[in-house]
């Protein structure tokens, strides 16, 4: 009898424990279901429901471009900014020093009245017998090209360039025919056969003859005395059809005809 009562009590105790376990398991499942439901909420709904100041600030922030889009280099952006601005806006423009040709066009900027006057003084000193019409046209139309030749800031180069220009003005020749009178150009000799051979040879250093003259002309280097002279001759008298860049009509051909 005592053994039966003990067994009955044990059964009741086990039944109670099982019920408690089932209740605990049910609560665990219910909590898991609530967590899963929360994870399925739309991001927008969660952001609206949030009371966080940071979340509110992010929600009000304006849209920005896709971060995956390529970013232009800073140098390109700066160049585009400058290109979009006019000088009145503070934008940048290309400036050219007096007497120096523009790197892109090869043209010289307009001369100032002071530069025209300086050209007249230099050119009249270079060629005292130059006709007044030629002097006026040469400095009225080609002041910077002339000054770039005869008053470049380098006395030796200016003297060499001026000698070529003076000979061209006196002879009425147009660069190529200042050195050559015919296509053989003095061949088989090393020098040309034109009226300004001595001045042109001196402008390229005094040695090398026709080959050196051709090399300097072909280089197009605007710093070299012979090429400075060619630019002044081109502007005033023009370029012979056989000259580098020729033929070109000079602005003062008529006024400076010998």
Describe it:
The termini are far apart. With 258 residues, the chain is mainly α. Strand 1 and strand 2 form a beta hairpin. It has helices at 2-39, 43-49, 53-60, 74-83, 113-126, 132-150, 155-171, 176-179, 197-203, 209-219, 225-236; strands spanning 238-239, 248-249. Helix 6 runs antiparallel to helix 11 (225-236). It has a two-stranded antiparallel sheet with strand order 1-2. The longest helix has 38 residues, at 2-39. It has two domains: 2-45; 113-249, no CATH class. The radius of gyration is 45 Å and the shape is globular. Helices cover 57% and strands 2% of the residues. The protein is built from eleven helices and two strands.
SSE arrangement:
Layout: H1 2-39, H2 43-49, H3 53-60, H4 74-83, H5 113-126, H6 132-150, H7 155-171, H8 176-179, H9 197-203, H10 209-219, H11 225-236, E1 238-239, E2 248-249
Describe what is shown at a glance.
With 258 residues, this protein is mainly α. The protein is built from 11 helices and 2 strands, in the order αααααααααααββ. The protein folds into 2 domains: 44 residues; 137 residues, no CATH class.
- Assembly category: single chain
- The parts where pLDDT drops under 50 for at least 5 residues are 1-98
The number of distinct β-strands equals 2
Q: Give the helices and strands as they follow along the chain.
A: HHHHHHHHHHHEE
Side by side, the strands of the main sheet go 1-2
Mean pLDDT: 73
Helix content bin = 55-70%
Sheet of most strands: 2 strands, antiparallel
The total tally of domains equals 2
- Shape, principal axes of CA atoms: globular
């Amino acid at each position: 009898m005592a053994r039966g009562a003990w067994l009955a009590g044990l059964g009741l105790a086990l039944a109670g424990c099982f019920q408690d376990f089932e209740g605990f398991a049910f609560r665990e499942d219910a909590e898991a279901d609530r967590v899963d439901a929360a994870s399925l909420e739309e991001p927008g709904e969660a952001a609206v429901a949030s009371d966080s100041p940071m979340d509110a600030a992010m929600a009000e922030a304006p849209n920005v471009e896709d971060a995956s889009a390529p970013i232009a280099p800073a140098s390109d952006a700066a160049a585009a900014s400058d290109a979009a601005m006019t000088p009145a806006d503070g934008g940048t423009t290309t400036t050219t020093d007096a007497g120096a040709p523009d790197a892109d066009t090869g043209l010289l900027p307009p001369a100032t009245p002071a530069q025209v006057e300086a050209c007249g003084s230099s050119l009249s000193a270079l060629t005292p017998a130059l006709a007044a019409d030629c002097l006026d046209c040469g400095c009225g139309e080609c002041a910077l090209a002339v000054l770039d030749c005869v008053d470049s800031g380098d006395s030796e180069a200016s003297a060499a360039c001026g000698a070529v220009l003076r000979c061209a003005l006196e002879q009425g020749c147009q660069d190529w025919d200042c050195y050559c009178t015919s296509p053989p150009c003095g061949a088989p000799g090393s020098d040309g056969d034109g009226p300004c051979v001595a001045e042109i040879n001196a402008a390229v250093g005094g040695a090398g003859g026709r080959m050196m003259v051709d090399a300097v002309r072909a280089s197009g280097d605007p710093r070299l005395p012979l090429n400075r002279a060619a630019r002044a001759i081109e502007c005033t008298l023009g370029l012979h059809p056989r000259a580098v860049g020729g033929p070109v009509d000079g602005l003062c051909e008529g006024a400076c005809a010998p």
